[in-house]
Amino acid sequence: MELCNQLNYVRSLSAGKAYFYHLSKGGEMCPLEIDRTRLRAPKGGYAEAYKGSKFVQKNVAPQDLAYANPQFIEECYVKPGVDDIYCAFSLRIKANSLGPDVCCDDEVRSKLSSLAKSYKELSGYSELAHRYAKNILLGTWLWRNRECRRLSIEVTTSDSETLIVENATKLTWYDHWDKDAAECLDKLTAYLTRALSDPTEYFYMDVKAKIAVGWGDEVYPSQEFLDNREDGVPTKQLATVELENGRETVAFHGQKVGAALQSIDDWWHEKADKPLRVNEYGADREYVIARRHVSLKNDFYQLLRNTENWIESMNTSNIIPNDVHFIMSVLVKGGLFNCSKSKSK
């Protein structure tokens, strides 16, 4: 199957901003506020004394390397007296991967819809749901804030079911989960399986983490991207959201939460040691490499070209290849998958 020049899937998982807060003794929601700090950072970068990649020394005096770089940044710390902080977000789930949102070729639309149909019939969505559920209950979406004294995750679904996992920091992606956590994982997996495969209902959930902290611990929300520097404006700015009382609290961007939930691709190699964030070329930021480089012929676009073969294989064997799990995870992620047609000369 050849791709068409207009092909778009709407994402199936839509995470809202995740906002941090703590509770007063009266139970009122209180913000985690931003500190603005001016500091003198010592010069330690390679480019301060060398140029190029051959260790060519710059003409700098010893005193030049002892001067500091004044910086003006934003930070966030837990107030003394606060033992627990919370981080919460809402998640909407829609079965958008069952077919393209925009597709200019009826044949391509039909084949992609058939692929999703076969995948659904073989319970493929339960595999994706299991992985998303893991990341939700593990608190992967807390990023560096997951390293804390104690962590519990609470999920309330649109079915009014509440699932609670205690000691989430004791759980890992690959290791065995204890009985209570495994039961919550199974229930959330079943719910997400329905949500990803049933277009007739509206599914959503509220997710909340309770994080045990020490007084003065640093909190790590999202940072804002700054195009340029302005005098008197911090060079590092934190994301915020306004609470009901009108006060601002630090937050995660919805995209950062979504990136954590989408970290499920360990199909990139049979001996993969970690799940990557779903990406068409398997971008591995830790090693700055594409695990699904085009030369390996396992990138999304080359695999998608074999849609007819995947459909035939699944209908014949009733087995879902890992490559199809990857294809469907990209379609759940959504995006523009247009194929640019070459211009005639």
Describe this structure in a few short sentences.
The protein has helices at about 105-120, 125-140, 180-195, 255-260, 300-305, 305-315, 320-335; strands spanning about 5-10, 15, 20-25, 30, 35-40, 50, 55, 70-75, 85-95, 100-105, 150-155, 160-165, 205-210, 240, 250, 265, 275, 285, 290, 335. The chain is α+β, with helices and mostly antiparallel strands and about 350 residues long.
Secondary structure: elements and pairs:
Elements: E1 7-9, E2 13-15, E3 18-23, E4 29-31, E5 34-42, E6 50-51, E7 56-57, E8 68-76, E9 84-93, E10 102-103, H1 106-121, H2 124-138, E11 150-157, E12 162-165, H3 179-197, E13 203-212, E14 240-242, E15 248-252, H4 254-261, E16 263-265, E17 276-277, E18 283-284, E19 289-290, H5 300-304, H6 307-317, H7 322-333, E20 335-336
Characteristics:
9-stranded antiparallel β-sheet, 3-stranded antiparallel β-sheet, alpha+beta, 345 residues, 25% helix, single chain, globular
